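Narrative progress, year one. The postdoctoral researcher (J.K.) led the effort to move from monomer predictions toward full complexes, under supervision of the PI. The following entry was the first complex the group processed end to end, covering 363 residues in total.
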Amino acid sequence: MIEQILLIILFLIGFWGIIAKKNIIKKIFALSILNSSVLILYITEGSKIGTNAPIMEEGVKNVVDPVPQALMLTAIVIGVCITALALAIAFRLYRYTHTLDIDKIHRKLHDEPF
Amino acid sequence: MKESKYSKFFIFQIVLSLATVLAVILPIFLSRVPWPDLARNYLEHNGLRDSGARNLVSAIYLGYRAFDTLGETIVLLVAVSGTISIISHSGLSQAKGFGKGEIKKHTNNSISGFRRTELIDVVTGKLGPIVLIFGLYLMLFGHLSPGGGFQGGVVVASGIVFMALGSKTDSSTWLQETGALAKIEAAGFLFIVLASLSGIPGGFGFFGNPLSSSGASPVISIIVLNTIIGLKVGAGLGFMCIAMLGKVE
């Protein structure tokens, strides 16, 4: 129970960072935090039915569910891809506008269209 | 943060959207439905016999659901190429092989001098090869212990970044032929596609394990795929990081 509440708080921190922060780098950090909260939710839920790591040495019984772990492996890689692409786009925006503030970027791109 | 930065309407908007999101995710996060153990029980009894891998996570993502992994590597390939093209079209990266940025090598050392300290020099330069070896270990033993292609690849990429940071010359020009990493990435993808087709002549279907009927242990297929994926992920992420390390004029 307590871990779900902590994960909700983590999720909300990520969401708040995405919508409220002005700096795009901080927005990307927040996206990463939000992503992590979902990953940890799956891992904790999947680990409720067992106690041991899913590595089948002799005599290992009662392992956790390996399916969400394999799924989250995919999700982690996708998260890395999203972060890298977002950082590259932020870098390019910075090159054009010389600022990381989302409002200033918006104003500059509005004033001088390409 | 100062209160004056946000208007009242903006704060109202944020609170409203946070409340909406909370209302949506609360039932998801707090659900009391017991986790189904059908898949777990099946894998616990048959996973080792079917795939030969002691690490059941490896058995899933390279055996039962290898098709998923193919899609994942495609996503990674697209993300790496997109990042590289965005960065090199911005025209700032000085690393070799990034198109427009290939200009003067040692113009101004102020930024790289600012970046480099003795600590970085000692730690990263010496630690880089050890991290690379650890990455190879994770790749090759991914079927026996925690690890696997993706994790090993990420560790190899951090080893590449370490060695780039600890190099005596500029970090982005440390690797003389950065294009080699791109070639490894592309070749890795080709080998994954070939491995996925290798079961078809034997009648096992797409991503079927060609060794599952012969006497050889089926785990060899998982080891090969782990190694290919590890090299591909390591080369791709290392390539991307070196592009991002490019010196800013």
